[in-house]
Amino acid sequence: MKKITLFFFAFSLVFSSLNAQTSLEFDGVDDYAQIAISGDSAFHFLNDFTIEAWIKMDTLGFWPTIASNSSTAYNGFWFGVNNSGYGGLQVFDGNWYNVSGTTNVIDSSWHHLAGVYRNDSLFILVDGTLEGSAPASFATYDNTPLTIGNDAFNDILIGRIEDLRFWNIARPYSDINQYKDSCLTGQESNLVAFYQFEEGTGNTFADLTGNNHYGSLINMDTSAAWTSGLNCTYSTISIKKIIALDEISIFPNPSQGIVNIDLSNLVEASIHIFNSNGKLIYKIENISNKTYQLEFNETPGVYFVVINSNDQQQHFKLIKI
């Protein structure tokens, strides 16, 4: 990404400085990149995680991969674009759990994709907007290396990848949207690996976190692999605190209709409820009561409750029967 450094003064003058930035371009034939250590356990996420990237594609191909450590034995994770041109995230434990977005990203424009695993559920955001959710199980892993632009099934990406980020937390949706255009330093909390692809030359690239998960270009023509990237803005990343689970309760759950939410001592809380397709179906803001009751008349199924209060956030799964 191009870095735009902003300086703010009391009289509101703004100066910016631009640095030429690059992304990696994959030809869809045999190009891919690989993280140096095979089966690197840093990418064996056994709890919540988030993967983010910017992509630019004009040709779909077959299930193009952004990043994956999945094996042909169906272990690991896969993050990319599905066969319909929608962003997707999958985890494998011998079975296949999948979530899909709804925006076709094969349009020669830059798009930001974020895949989130939280509390046994998958979520996909496109350009900062939640587009899908699905139940899942924790992934299991073997020694398959992390690859970028391809996977063990030869699902090759045709296009550009920029600003690839791996986090060992489920980042709040508001943070993903707010900071998707920001230039990271690599020192942000819970950032496992960060590939900005700014080398512009050669056949290796750095992990800017300092965790040394460096990578190499495989079968890539270095004269064509490094190409123009995006602009980003330097800003301070602040991750929302996660509200302790024992401070909030939802009951009864499963529910036949009436749902009570004990908000404990939260101040001016908000409640957002999404269906399994990621559609917002219920929202209420500035709740001051300790206990909030709602009549939940949706069809039976799995729903996701997001509770916010100031700089805190927590997520729950709600089952309607």
Features:
321 residues, mainly beta, 2 domains, eight-stranded antiparallel sheet, 3% helix, 50% strand, disordered N terminus
Can you give a write-up of this model?
By secondary structure, the chain is mostly beta strands. The chain folds into two domains: 2-234, Jelly Rolls (Sandwich); 241-320, Immunoglobulin-like, CATH 2.60.40. Helices cover 3% and strands 50% of the residues. The protein contains two helices and 28 strands. A hairpin with a 2-residue loop joins strand 27 and strand 28. The model is unreliable at 2-20 (pLDDT under 50).
Give a short summary of the structure.
This protein is mainly beta. The protein is 3% helix and 50% strand.
Question: Based on CA inertia axes, which overall geometry fits?
Answer: elongated
Q: What is the mean pLDDT?
A: 84
Low-confidence stretches: 2-20
Distance between the termini: 47 Å
Topology:
Elements: E1 2-8, E2 14-19, E3 22-27, E4 32-35, E5 49-56, E6 65-68, E7 75-81, E8 86-93, E9 96-104, E10 110-118, E11 121-126, E12 129-135, E13 147-148, E14 158-167, H1 173-179, E15 182-183, E16 191-195, E17 204-205, E18 215-218, H2 222-225, E19 226-228, E20 231-234, E21 241-242, E22 249-251, E23 258-262, E24 269-274, E25 280-287, E26 291-295, E27 301-309, E28 312-320
